[in-house]
Amino acid sequence: MSEGSVDAALASLQVDDRSIRLDCPGGWLWTHRHRLSVCGVHVATPEEVAHGGFARDAIVPDAPAPLTAGRLRRITPFLAEPGTPAGLCVGFGALDRSHHRVVAAASAEAARPDFLPHHGSRYALGPHAGRLVDVLTARGGTRTTTVMDPRIARYSEPAVARWVGMHYDNAWTGQGEGERHPRDVRVARADRRVIHNLGPGSRSLVFALNMSALHLSDRVSPGDSRNVPTTAQLREFLVGHPDEVSRIVCAVWTTEVGELVVLPAGLALHDGSMEGRRKPSSALVFAGTFPRGAFSRM
Question: CA of 151: how far to CAs of 25, 54, 161, in Å?
């Protein structure tokens, strides 16, 4: 998508009670606007499938466009309000120094040969607690970072190690935890992910503001208050409705080493990105019912 197309999509962007919100003050966002850009998405081309490593019909983010003052004004309505539920919010922050031992212990657990993603131990993160999901390592220069993982075949597509593309998380553990909850539960109190950048380089998170799983649910199963569509249903829907693809607007947020993002991964269409980065980066991921502002330093 060209920058002109991004601006056209931004011009028609509308916020509603299904939209993903930025959990930060407007002044803070303005101060940190150099860390944020915007982009559209497209369905993976035959070349990207054949030679770029993407799965068939993967939703691929376009190259990011800088956040000009005009584009920032279009994004501002997506700032979270006091009553916005945590399940719709993307938060920004960092862990305290007191969490360094927790980070080291969780990283060591994830490095064990028998570690199964999403089934990790629970760790105390100050007054909050999170279940270890994984440590996600990404090399520099990749458009997205999520690869199909044969270790999690129950909810993945592990036939071949290809880039997943933009997706919703639909994890499910033996303890009944995860994101496979009815729609109202996901919004009110389902897991959110803490994605903590271990470095050594910076990394980005791409997330759609206006194609949450709630938007998709209302399109593929109108009136079904329990339905939460999967990534496969998203792909099928967008392939059949190319006009919808051109309307999707994503925010691209850069995290430096030691910083984190709190993401409603079961609702927000998202993926990591290392585009434009030379150094690799690893991210430690916890899942938990983290409230708004849990790790904020604003």
Answer: 39, 19, 11
> Can you say how many angstroms the Cα of residue 8 is from the centroid of all Cα atoms in its chain?
23
Q: What is the pTM of this model?
A: 0.92
Distance CA 276, CA 142 (A): 8
- DSSP for 200-246 reads ES-EEEEEESS--HHHHHHHHSTT-SS----HHHHHHHHHH-HHHHT
User: Which 8-state DSSP code applies to residue 102?
Assistant: H
Q: What angle do CA 201, 260, 100 make, to 5 degrees?
A: 85
Q: pLDDT truncated to tens, each residue of the chain (298 aa)? A: 566 788 899 999 999 999 999 999 999 999 999 999 999 999 999 999 998 899 899 999 999 999 999 999 999 999 999 999 998 999 999 998 888 999 999 999 999 999 988 889 999 998 899 999 999 999 999 999 988 766 554 444 445 568 889 998 864 444 444 455 666 766 776 689 999 999 999 999 999 999 998 999 888 887 676 767 778 889 999 999 999 999 999 999 999 999 999 999 988 999 999 999 999 999 999 999 899 999 987 7
Contact between 284 and 120 (Cβ < 8 Å): no
